[in-house]
Amino acid sequence: MAGKKRRPSTTDSAVSKPKRAKFTLESAKLPELTREGVVLVTGSGECGQLGLGPDIFEKSRPALVDTKHEIVDICAGGMHTVCLTKEGKLLTFGCNDEGALGRVTEGSEGAESIPGEVELPGKVIQISAGDSHTAALLEDGRVFAWGTFRDQHGNMGLTLRGNEKLPHEIVQDKQVVKIASGNDHVVFLTNHGEIFTCGCAEQGQLGRTSKRGSGRDARSGAGKGQIAKLLQPTLISLNPSKKLHFDNIWAGSYGTFAKVAGKDDIYVFGLNNYNQLGVEVKNVENCQYLPALSRQFSKHQWNIISSGDHHTIALDDGGRTYAIGRKEYGRLGLGELDSDAIELTEIPTLKDKKVLHVACGSSTSFAITDKGELYGWGMGTNGQLGTGEEDDCVEPTLIKSKQLTDRAVFKVSAGGQHTVILATNSNNNKGGDA
C-alpha cells in the first residue's frame, strides 16, 4: 500500500497565495484651484458672515469683499465663510461663538466680520464647512478641523475636549485625499478608497450606526462614551463581501453620497424625507442609516452632487443639471409644482446651457454656465439669491448686479442665509452693490 502523501503546507512558498494588493486611489477629484478671483457676498450678515465689516448686516445684491488676497476657492458655512488663497492659506469671517473661524477674535472689536488668517502647519488644498465647523485638507494628506458639531440635544463638541477653537488634527494615521462637510458631520476619503465619518449621526449621515446607535443617549454607550464613538472618525459600515472602494464623496446638510471606484454606482446614507437621496427608505424616520445603492443617482456620471436640507441638485459630466426632493420655495428650479420630485428631473430652463458648477444652500440652488453667468433659485427671504429682491424664484434666474458686470463667475457656495461668489477680477468697481 502506497504511503500517505503529505498535504502541502500553506506555509510552503511554492503554494502560498500572494497577498492581494491593497486598493490605491491615485488621486481624487478636488475643486480646481488654478483660477484666481475676487469674493462677492449676498444675503444675511448679522454674524459677520459677509465679511463687510461690523456695520453691514444684509445685502440683497452681490457686494465685493476686501480680502487683499487672490482667492481660488470659497465655502459658506451656516453663519461663517471660508476662503482659500492662491498660496494655500485660509481666511475666515463670520460667527465665532463656537470656534468655527479657527482663530482668536476675542478682544478685537469687529474681528469676526473681516477676513482673518487661520494658522495651519502646511498648504491647504481643499476646504469644507458646516453649520458650526470648518475643515481643511493639507497637501500632505492631513486634515485639520475646528468648531463643533451639534445634535438635537445641543453642542456635541468637535472632540471629547469640547469645542476646538483652533485647528485640531482630526484624522490620525490616514492619508486623506478628499473631505466633505454636512451641517454637523464630516466625511473623509482616503488614498485606499475608504470612507471615514464623524459628527452627528441622528439622520444616518455617518453611515455606520443603526437608529438605536445614532444618538448620544444610545444604549450601546451612554453619555461621553457614546459621543466619543460619534466624534471619532470611523469607517462606514459596508458588506465585506462586496469589497467596495470609492473614488469620490459629497455631503449634503444631513446626508452623504459616495461613488464606487471605476463605476457609476452611488451609495447614499442620511436623511431622505423628500427622497433627496434617491433611494426608497422603509422606516418612519425616512432616514437611511447604513449605505445603500441609489438607483436614481447610479444612472448618471456625476461631476457634482450638492444637497441642501431637503433637496439635491446634481450636475452630470455633460453639463446637464438635475433636481430631486422638496418643492417648497422653488428650490428645485422646476417651476410651479403640485408635488415634490421623487425622481431626478432635468431642469428645463438650463437645458440649452452648458453648466459647469452647481451648489445648494439650505433652501436655495445655484448654477454657473460656461459663459460665467450665475443663476439662482429657491428661497430669497434674506437676499441670499442676490436678485435685489426678497422674492422666491421657482426657476433659475440670471443674477445681475453692478459688481458682476464684466465679471465671469466660476464658483459659488451657499450657506444658511448667505451666498459667496468667486468671479474673475476684470471689473474695477470698488465697493457698492447696485
Descriptive terms for the model:
single chain; 434 residues; mainly beta; Methylamine Dehydrogenase, Chain H; four-stranded antiparallel beta sheet; 30 strands; disordered C terminus; guanyl-nucleotide exchange factor activity
* Low-pLDDT segments: 4-15, 428-434
Termini separation: 102 Å
Q: Return the domain count.
A: 1
Biggest sheet: strands, sense, closure? Answer: 4 strands, antiparallel
CATH topology: Methylamine Dehydrogenase, Chain H
CATH architecture, by name, is 7 Propeller
- The radius of gyration over CA amounts to 23 Å
Average of the residue pLDDT scores: 92
Top CATH class? Mainly Beta
User: What is the general shape?
Assistant: globular
Q: Tell me the number of strands.
A: 30
What is the topology?
Layout: E1 38-44, E2 58-64, E3 71-76, E4 80-85, E5 90-94, E6 116-118, E7 124-129, E8 133-138, E9 143-147, E10 149-151, E11 154-157, E12 164-169, E13 176-181, E14 185-190, E15 195-199, H1 224-231, E16 234-235, E17 246-251, E18 255-260, E19 266-271, E20 287-293, E21 302-307, E22 311-316, E23 321-325, E24 341-346, E25 355-360, E26 364-369, E27 374-378, E28 393-398, E29 409-414, E30 418-423
Antiparallel strand pairs: 1-2, 1-30, 3-4, 4-5, 5-6, 7-8, 8-9, 9-12, 10-11, 13-14, 14-15, 15-16, 17-18, 18-19, 19-20, 21-22, 22-23, 23-24, 25-26, 26-27, 27-28, 29-30
What does this structure look like?
This protein is 2% helix and 38% strand. With 434 residues, the protein is an all-beta fold. It has a single domain, classed as 7 Propeller (Methylamine Dehydrogenase, Chain H). The strands form eight sheets. A four-stranded antiparallel β-sheet has the order 2-1-30-29, with no helix packed on it. A hairpin with a 4-residue loop joins strand 22 and strand 23 (321-325). The radius of gyration is 23 Å and the shape is globular. The termini are far apart. Residues 4-15 and 428-434 have low confidence and may be disordered.
